[in-house]
Amino acid sequence: MPAKTRSASLGPVYLGIDIGTSGCRTLAVTTNGTVLAIADRGYPLITPAPGHVEQDPQEWIRGAFATLAEVCTSGAFDPAQVAGIGVDGQSWACVPVAKDGTILANNPLWMDVRAQSICDELLTRVPAAELLALAGNPLSPSYSTAKAIWFQRKRPEVFARARWFLQCNSVVVLALTGVASQDHSQGYGWHFIDVATGDIDAGMAERLGIDPGRVPAAVEPSAVVGGLTAAAAAATGLRPGTPVVAGGLDAACGTLGAGVYLPGQAQEQSGQAGGMSIAMAEPVADPRLILSRHVVPGSWLLQGGTSAGAASLAWLARVIGAAEAVAAGHSATAQFEEISRLAGQVPPGADGVIFLPYLSGERSPLWDPDARGAFIGLHLGIDRPQLYRAAMEGVAMALRHNLDTAAAAGVTASELRAVGGATKSPVWMQIKADVTGVPLTVGAHPNATPLGAAMLAALGTGGAGVAELARTWASHAASYRPDLATRERYDRLYAVYSGLYPALAGSMHTLAEIGRSSQKAHE
User: Fold this and answer.
1) Distances in Å between the alpha carbon of 456 and those of 276, 314, 467?
2) Which of 209, 285, 345, 362 is the S-S candidate for 371 at Cβ 3.0 to 4.6 Å?
3) Could you tell me if 458 and 14 are in contact, meaning their C-beta atoms sit under 8 angstroms apart?
4) By C-alpha distance, which of 38, 79, 78, 45 is closest to 59?
5) Alpha helices for 42-155 (secondary structure H)
6) Residues 248-284: tens digit of each pLDDT
7) Alpha-carbon torsion (90, 91, 97, 99), positive or negative
8) 401: part of which helix (H) or strand (E)?
């Protein structure tokens, strides 16, 4: 079949752009969920001072334009067939943008803690309980609120020129369309926005000392905010006027890309970091977790995240996995498969070894940047396979900790839909099902996050409804049901796991301080 005829038979094509922490990924997908092309671009972190972790938003824009151009020149489809573009982005950005669209400063990332003292000060004036009741989340330096005040106090020249403070996906949408926007799913970065309604509370904004007029009026993530400008079209090979939707939070788009939109369904993130997002029909806040609006109207997400998910196993493989690397011919994929095979030979409980996956501090529900990882229960009979198994089980225990915290708040997960690179290990997926006691399915598409962004484009341009997209685009490749006998063994192990952090937290904090002092001594 000639290329043009083949392209014509595809029908409308939708593009999803994922602006992640480590890089940008863009994919093109048909109306039946077939992925036609994928392109990636990485970009660096910038750490100008202790506690400061930034990115240049221009890198996001360059990544988006470059990957759009790559998929459009792949030959897999005719760019004229693109019916809509969706963009997702990392959370809690605060990008100062001038009236003419000029980006005025780098963006402090979600892991940036420069505004901690500002949070401490604000909490002396605004009770934490009031902020939680309105915004659904406690005040912390990760969120946009304190970052905007930091710009006001520390970079007044930037603050004075800033017409807008934009979220990550909004920066890229502005570059594509020339329109400044804010979507409802990213509104949880601002503590003057009511998480239940999406409305601005002017009184709270005044108490916090923030002008809410510097944030665009929020729209639904699937709302078309503009068409592709002539300049953006020329740079990417797309058609001028191609509709671009507002897009949304990357975690929420990944949740939609996994087919999660009904109450009780949950996405399980099996990536470098780990986490879960449970869909709800009503907002439920818990200070130990994260609450946001879903990218699906009328739905909310209760989220939890562990800092080192698959990164824990990657670290362990780097430290002790030389034999597995040689056996696998040094292929990362083959090494992972060999590690998974070895872990599968070890019985549940890893012969009495527990792993705490706090290699980069820990996020929910501990919120402790000085938490530290540990193996507990080591003895002379332990070898690589037991350590691999223990690492997999420790990450699963962290997932259960978040799920149990959500359950204590009244939100339970009836099923887990896993996405991310670790889903390639059947052993690890079964461990997660057994540890949590929740049935788990693996999606057929490994790129759920940009897929979810493309879903928003289809929703916003009339391509399909949520239920149809979840059924046709978010299909399942494998299912894992909890084994009750194994779950009983894991219940005993989890009881031990749950007591370790409270017992060791003081020692962890001391060791963290010693580590920082040691690093300074070598600088």
Assistant:
1) 20, 33, 13
2) 362
3) yes
4) 45
5) 57-72, 116-125, 128-135, 144-154
6) 999 999 999 999 999 999 999 988 888 999 999 999 9
7) positive
8) helix 384-408
β pairing state of 82-89 and 248-249: parallel
Measured distance CA(34)–CA(29) in Å, rounded: 5
Both tokens assigned to 35? 């992925």
pLDDT tens readout for residues 34-43:
999 999 999 9
Helix or strand run (H / E) with residue 290: strand 290-293
What are the phi and psi torsion angles at 371 (to 5°)? -65, 150
Question: What SS3 state is found at 262?
Answer: coil
Tell me the C-alpha distance between 77 and 475, whole Å: 22
Provide the angle, in degrees to the nearest 10, between the axes of the packed helices 448-460 and 250-257. 90
Helices (H), 213-287: 230-236, 250-257
* 49 DSSP 8-state letter: S
For residue 202, the surrounding DSSP H or E stretch is helix 202-208
In angstroms, rounded to a whole number, what is the distance separating the alpha carbons of residues 405 and 410? 9
Rounded to 5°, the CA angle 462-464-470 comes to: 145
H or E element: which one contains 89?
A: strand 82-89
